[in-house]
Every structure is written in structure tokens, then in C-alpha cells.
Amino acid sequence: MLSIATDIDALARFGRALADPIRCRILLVLRDAPAHPADLADVLGISRTRLSNHLACLRDCGLVVAVPAGRRVRYELADPRLAHALDDLRSAVIAVENDKTCIDAHQGEDCC
């Protein structure tokens, strides 16, 4: 059984990855299929440099992996279960009322 600290770390890494809309879009694209960075940049409409920074974050969070593919590198979700987790999370978020704002009780600011 995993410790609470391990669970919290895993959720915090997932939350960090999802905190940015571009990283969310990358994860959703990779949910459907692995992709090369140039293709991801084109699909997302962002520069390769910006994409590279986001991919580095997602790798550091342990959510994506770089897989050598000949002379190129392909990115994919680190674990196939992440695709299911993303789908479950999307479904849960849709069930939440749209007029609610996520307020950080300690700061009095929006947390999302």
C-alpha cells in the first residue's frame, strides 16, 4: 500500500501538469495517440521552443515519456492508465456546476 505522502506527491504532480491549458491540451492529444514534437507544435499552434518547455514539465511530472523513434523522438503518455484518468477527470469536471469559482481559502484568490 502506498503511503499518504506518496499519494499526495502523485496528485500534486498531476495537478501541476494540469494547471496550464497548454499542458492539458498536450495530454489530451497524447491520450489519443503518441506524437512527434513537430506534429504536436503544429496541432497546438505553438512554437517548438514553447512546446519543449511544456514537454519537459510533463516529463518531470512523470506523465509523458520520450521514446526514440529512429532519428526522431516520439512522446506518449507514461502509463496507459493516464488516458482513463484524463477521461474520468473530464467527466467529473463536466458534472461540476459551471458558475462555481475555485477560491483558495488561504489567499482569497482564485486557485484555478
From TrEMBL:
CDD domains: HTH_ARSR. InterPro entries: ArsR-like_HTH, HTH_ArsR_DNA-bd_dom, HTH_Metal-responsive_Reg, WH-like_DNA-bd_sf, WH_DNA-bd_sf. Residues 4-100 form the HTH arsR-type domain. This is Metalloregulator ArsR/SmtB family transcription factor. It holds the Pfam family HTH_5. It comes from Nocardiopsis suaedae.
